[in-house]
Amino acid sequence: MKRFIAKIFYFLIFPTTLATVIMLMVGNEYSKNSHEVNVAFAYEKLEELKDTNKIVIVSGSNGAFSINSQIISETMSMPVVNTSTHAGIGVRMQFEIYKDLLNKGDIIVFCPEYYSSQSRLYGEGALFRILSTHIPKAYLRMSAKQWWYTFKYIAPHFIGALKVINCKPFEGPYSARSINKFGDISYKREPQEFKTTYNFKGNMDKETLSYYQYLHDYSKDHGLYLVYLPPCLNESNFFHQKNQIDSLTFFMEQNEIPFQADPYRYVFPDSLFFDTPYHMTTKGAELRTLVLIDDLKQLIDTNHF
Fold this sequence. Notes:
By secondary structure, the protein is of the alpha/beta class. The chain has one domain (29-301): Rossmann fold (3-Layer(aba) Sandwich). Helix content is 47%, strand content 8%. Strands 2-1-3-4 form a four-stranded parallel sheet, with helices on both faces. Strand 7 and strand 8 (279-280) form a beta hairpin.
């Protein structure tokens, strides 16, 4: 019996594990030259500011494209680090990468997209593309459940990396060169026509809910001020999904992790959006930022932290 088990290990498990490790070691040239480099940039900035109180923005690309951190920093008189990147990295990893670099008294602005399934929690293909390219040591932060859920994306990650192996530095809003010193997309963005329509769920699965509750408890235990705000969204998508968003908002209130601002405050005209329902124009990002600052000030003034 022991021989049989040993054979299974040597001829099946060992080669599979070795192949997986090799695939994870391969970085993605597109990611290397894209705005996803912000994951490594944000890590370095947080290391520099580890002992300094700061505002840290944790979000998918709605935070990268639709927030002006310079305005926040100047208005609130605090350094700002925008860690936002492709939402496919997953909410869990967005926090786990940086949590040891957060300091008591830091303000964490958490505004993930409305999509609230396990793929939003654990990540998709972008998870491996970003970690393998920019911060491979973060693989040590992945939980067993996360590995189990995302294992199916490893081979596609490897194939995708081979397809873009000759990718060179490029210009545009998705370029690494578009990231400013705060971590925002600084490339000038004008309105574009797009027909993207999202479909949201009116609740969260148990594992996503459990992690959001963990974020709340971790922040409280470590003296962090967690501010849970809605993402920005264009009018047409918001009102198309109004019932689902209202249901999700009620669900979160019932589970004691409510938005700390009305989602309607973060709904803006379609004319203020760039190329997706979450990516705002340069002007739109400034307007969204003013709303965000107003909410932060109100929470501070009323001791809602």
